[in-house]
């Protein structure tokens, strides 16, 4: 199937079009694309919901969402007007009164590209796709976009994929992992495959271990209900962290196209050594935040967050040790860690190089030396610590010194939001940065046994105070082999 290169006039139909994701991410990102000239003049957005809004209601809601978005700052009145004119609302009650499908049919123009965006819980994705099919709305070129969660285990993920796959060919399905739309995540591929010097070092001979961290200061907020059915393993590890691991560990693809890149990511997932049996207790740590203080403000513990039971074993923190069992990575631990209500919001990949094989200088095993840090957020950039001589006469003294590439300082341009990039790609028909079904299922195949093993353990997640570095168990996990998390040794 040829990939289309540029976006054309498209009817973008957003199911869940008045919901949280649409207002917080999709509409502001579409506005930014419009403002920066990346949206075809003929593209229209049809928000579908059960809300019975008029077009004017939707446009008011969208205008506030755009104005309130941090990347928009001040909405330009002419652009905002032009953007709002693209929007309309159609009420469809999926599984209920069928007349909504006729209204949707009337809202779409024949002969234009169609993208159906499912910003809805996964259990209604199948019913929406059937409804679209029954209404004759699915043209051969139509695409469908799916949001996570893509199921809550392998079986439910297969069920959702089967239901959507019954209507749309796999090449027409765009599964979003918004981490893949982040600038620095794409830059990781450029760093690895557009520079010649890293590849010879990118293996177990020169790399001691890898750390992948996604730490947030926010709690679950109003999402306690969802979170109790998910937990950090399903919410962050199964998708975002494993995708980062794939991009870090994958072999060079033959070209930058959807199947070459995704084939290589899949091989990484298939090489993950299963975490089962006793290894689950040894190599994983679960935590749950208690009360505490984040940046000086008192915050609730997870169990006090509204919308859920007073007792829950849901993990808000996970740390684990994974192994990619292949020739390149044998023996190199990949430490993955994610948590809510941590002391600092920080997402980064740390490649920790080995020490020199033979030292002629004393003290070369200094903390923090020989680390390559790919910082996804905040302060996107790449940071390499080299050992350097401290200036001065007398005894030779070494110190880790940073080589910094800050994207903000180097490129005088705004980094687009992840959704801007992903929406552009969907509109252009490029699925390289989206997850293929086999990838999603391979990830569940690895994650499911860990969750099952946790359910069988008598232990519960370790409580950590909000605003801390997570549970002590995470420090023991990495400390067992004499290693430390990067922030404890970050050169100041
Ligand atoms: C989402 C998770 O996928 O990613 C949220 O459901 C999490 O729980 C969010 O907060 C983190 O995304 P970002 O872009 O803020 O790092």
UniProtKB/TrEMBL annotation:
Where is the chain membrane-spanning?
Answer: none
Keywords recorded for this protein, A-Z = Carbohydrate metabolism, Glucose metabolism, NADP, Oxidoreductase
Specify whether S-adenosyl-L-methionine is a keyword of the entry.
Answer: no
- Which molecular-function annotations from GO does this UniProt entry contain? glucose-6-phosphate dehydrogenase activity; NADP binding
Domain annotation Glucose-6-phosphate dehydrogenase NAD-binding: ranges: 13-187
Q: Which reaction does it catalyse?
A: D-glucose 6-phosphate + NADP(+) = 6-phospho-D-glucono-1,5-lactone + NADPH + H(+)
Region entry Disordered, spans = 464-492
The Gene Ontology CC terms held by the record are: cytosol
Give the E.C. number(s). 1.1.1.49
In Swiss-Prot or TrEMBL terms, this protein is called: Glucose-6-phosphate 1-dehydrogenase
In the record, what lineage is assigned to the organism producing the protein?
A: Bacteria, Bacillati, Actinomycetota, Actinomycetes, Streptosporangiales
């Amino acid at each position: 199937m040829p990939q289309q290169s540029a976006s054309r006039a498209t009817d973008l139909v957003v199911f869940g079009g008045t919901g949280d994701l649409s207002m917080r991410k999709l509409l502001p990102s579409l506005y930014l694309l419009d403002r920066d000239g990346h949206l075809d003049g003929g593209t229209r957005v049809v928000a579908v919901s059960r809300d019975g809004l008029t077009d004017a209601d939707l446009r008011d809601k969208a205008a506030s969402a755009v104005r309130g978005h941090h990347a928009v700052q001040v909405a330009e009145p002419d652009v905002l007007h032009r953007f709002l004119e693209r929007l309309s609302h159609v009420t469809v009650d999926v599984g209920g009164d069928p007349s909504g499908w006729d209204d949707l049919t009337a809202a779409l123009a024949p002969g234009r590209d169609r993208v159906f965006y499912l910003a809805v819980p996964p259990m209604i994705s199948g019913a929406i796709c059937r409804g679209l099919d029954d209404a004759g709305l699915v043209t051969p070129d139509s695409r469908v976009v799916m949001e996570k969660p893509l199921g809550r285990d392998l079986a439910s993920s297969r069920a959702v994929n089967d239901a959507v796959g019954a209507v749309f060919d796999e090449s027409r399905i765009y599964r979003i992992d918004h981490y893949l739309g982040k600038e620095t995540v794409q830059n990781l591929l450029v760093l690895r495959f557009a520079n010649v010097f890293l590849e010879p070092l990118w293996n177990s001979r020169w790399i001691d271990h890898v750390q992948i961290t996604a730490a947030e200061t926010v709690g679950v907020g109003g999402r306690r209900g969802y979170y109790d059915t998910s937990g950090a393993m399903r919410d962050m590890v199964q998708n975002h962290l494993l995708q980062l691991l794939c991009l870090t560990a994958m072999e060079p693809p033959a070209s930058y196209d959807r199947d070459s890149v995704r084939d290589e990511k899949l091989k990484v997932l298939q090489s993950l050594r299963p975490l089962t049996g006793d290894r689950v207790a040894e190599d994983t740590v679960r935590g749950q935040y208690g009360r505490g203080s984040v940046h000086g403000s008192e915050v609730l513990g997870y169990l006090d967050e509204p919308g859920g039971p007073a007792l829950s074993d849901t993990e808000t923190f996970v740390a684990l040790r994974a192994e990619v069992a292949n020739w390149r990575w044998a023996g190199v631990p990949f430490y993955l860690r994610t948590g809510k209500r941590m002391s600092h919001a920080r997402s980064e990949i740390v490649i920790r190089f080995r020490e020199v094989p033979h030292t002629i200088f004393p003290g070369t095993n200094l903390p923090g030396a020989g680390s390559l840090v790919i910082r996804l957020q905040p302060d996107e950039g790449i940071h390499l610590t080299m050992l350097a001589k401290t200036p001065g006469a007398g005894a030779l003294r070494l110190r880790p010194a940073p080589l910094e590439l800050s994207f903000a300082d180097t490129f005088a341009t705004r980094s687009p939001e992840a959704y801007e990039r992903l929406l552009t790609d969907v509109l252009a028909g490029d699925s390289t940065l989206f997850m293929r079904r086999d990838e999603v299922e391979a990830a569940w195949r690895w994650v499911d046994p860990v969750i099952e093993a946790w359910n069988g353990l008598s232990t519960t997640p370790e409580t950590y105070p909000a605003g801390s570095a997570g549970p002590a168990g995470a420090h023991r996990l990495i400390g067992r082999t004499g290693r430390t998390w990067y922030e404890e040794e970050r050169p100041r």
